[in-house]
């Protein structure tokens, strides 16, 4: 049964509707220990505080929920990229010196992307060498097709961050449709879900992975996770004066309404996408190959795991306290979606195709 809504700076946040299975890799703590050692040796953290905050993202716990049956070394490599991504995001994207300087960020993004694509790329930024080490791990166990998919997803993420930084530099609050399109990229969901194949070692045939219906399911999983993160981070952003481009500030502008009403509207929008994901998934899954079925399960695990992690991680919680694993039992969920209206979300034509009745 869902618990009463939590409060964030006087705003009620309803419990999360998430009708997906929960799982976690059985050796997550051992993998996390190895990851923490790597972070200390990587050179990507400039200060002890930065290192501690990167460790406190608990990215091993995060991705262990996406890929609970992964090989240990593959899961470690995937988790390292997530740690790297959070550290890069904090230092170079969200609040670092480049967070409102698009020209300088784009120059760095080009160097970083090239380091993702080739080990011979040069770059003086402290994040370059750490990324190259992670990519060497990927190339050591994954076929070129999977690595290339990841590098393309990585470029998509950086392009979305550049879009977001451009908005911030120009003092522009995007409309809902632009925001959802941008968030599909800037949230980092593309590379995070591309890690599923790298972590599990299962390669989905192109003819299945690139089907419109499967692409729609992937995009929906990315957006749901991104919007859930907007919810999880609301307290952090409000208390730190960082609230800029998120689902709720966008809806406040779009609907000309107070924050509480925007939270209600945003929760309903997100729940409608979840319901469409469930219905389309249930249509695709019966004829999927074993490889595609595993990928689809990874999307479900990812949506659920992102919530289980996001509701507990110091990155979003005030006080920086990381509860022990027993506190998983205290997580509460909504019994029903807050909005069950069928059909595309209003004001968002760029994602309306997810509701195409002929999607296959």
TrEMBL record:
EC number per UniProt: 4.2.3.-
The protein's required cofactors: Mg(2+)
EC class name: lyase
Pfam families found in the cross-reference section: Terpene_syn_C_2
KW Transcription regulation (keyword) present: no
Record keywords: Lyase, Magnesium, Metal-binding
Similarity remark: Belongs to the terpene synthase family.
Protein name: Terpene synthase
Natural source organism: Streptomyces thinghirensis
Highest classification ranks of the organism: Bacteria, Bacillati, Actinomycetota, Actinomycetes, Kitasatosporales
């Amino acid at each position: 049964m869902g618990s009463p809504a939590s409060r964030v700076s006087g705003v009620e946040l309803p419990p999360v509707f998430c009708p997906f299975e929960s799982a976690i890799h059985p050796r997550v703590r051992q993998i996390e220990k190895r990851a923490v050692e790597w972070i200390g040796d990587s050179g990507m953290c400039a200060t002890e505080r930065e290192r501690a905050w990167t460790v406190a993202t608990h990215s091993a716990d995060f991705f262990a929920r996406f890929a609970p049956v992964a090989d240990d070394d593959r899961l470690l490599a995937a988790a390292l990229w997530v740690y790297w991504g959070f550290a890069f995001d904090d230092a170079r994207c969200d609040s670092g010196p480049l967070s409102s300087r698009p020209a300088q960020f784009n120059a760095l993004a080009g160097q970083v992307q090239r380091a993702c694509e080739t080990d011979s790329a040069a770059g003086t930024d402290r994040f370059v060498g750490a990324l190259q080490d992670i990519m060497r791990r990927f190339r050591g166990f994954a076929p070129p097709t999977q690595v290339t998919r990841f590098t393309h997803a990585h470029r998509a993420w950086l392009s979305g961050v550049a879009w977001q930084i451009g908005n911030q530099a120009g003092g522009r609050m995007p409309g809902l449709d632009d925001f959802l399109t941008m968030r599909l990229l800037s949230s980092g969901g593309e590379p995070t879900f591309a890690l599923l194949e790298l972590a599990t070692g299962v390669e989905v045939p192109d003819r299945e992975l690139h089907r419109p219906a499967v692409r729609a399911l992937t995009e929906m999983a990315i957006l749901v996770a991104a919007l859930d993160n907007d919810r999880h981070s609301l307290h952090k952003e409000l208390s730190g004066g960082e609230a800029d481009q998120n689902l709720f500030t966008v809806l406040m502008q779009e609907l000309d309404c107070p924050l509480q009403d925007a939270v209600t509207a945003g929760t309903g929008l997100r729940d409608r996408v979840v319901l469409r994901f469930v219905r389309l998934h249930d249509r695709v899954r019966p004829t999927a190959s074993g490889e595609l079925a595993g990928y689809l399960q990874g999307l479900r695990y990812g949506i659920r795991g992102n919530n289980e992690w996001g509701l507990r991680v110091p990155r979003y919680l005030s006080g920086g306290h990381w509860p022990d694993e027993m506190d998983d039992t205290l997580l509460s969920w909504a019994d029903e979606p807050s909005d069950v209206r069928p059909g595309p979300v209003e004001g968002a034509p760029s994602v309306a195709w997810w509701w195409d009745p002929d999607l296959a």
